[in-house]
Amino acid sequence: MKLKAGQPLYSVTDDTTLLVIRSADRQVSLTCGGHEMSASKDTGEKLPMEGPAGHGATIGKRYVDIDNVVELLCTKPGDGELALDGVALNLVAAKQLPASD
Amino acid sequence: MNLSMLLDMAADGFGDRVVLGRQDSGLTAERVRAAACGGAAMLREQGAGALIYLDVNGPTFAVALFAAARAGIPLVPINYRLSAAQQAQLVAHHPRATILTGPEGTQLQVPDGTILTTTQWLAEATSRADTVPADGSVAESSSPAVVIYTSGTTAEPKGVLLRHDNLVSYVLGTVEFAGAEPGDTALVSVPPYHIAAVANVITNLYAGRRCIVLEQFTGEQWLELVRSESVTHALVVPTMLARIMSADADHSVPSLRSLAYGGAPMPTKVIEAALLAWPSVNFANAYGLTETSSTVAVLGPDEHRAAIGSDDPKQRARMSSVGRPVPGVEIEIRGTDGTGEALSPGQVGRIWVRGDQVSGEYAGAGSVLDPQGWFDTRDEGYLDEDGYLFVGGRTDDTIIRGGENIAPAEIEEAILALDGVDDAVVVGVPDLEWGQRLESAVVAAAGVTLDPEAIREHVRTQLRSSKTPDHIVVWDELPRTETGKIIRKRVLERMALDDASS
Question: Domains along chain B?
Answer without folding.
Answer: 3-164 (3.40.50.980), 329-395 (2.30.38.10), 398-501 (3.30.300.30)
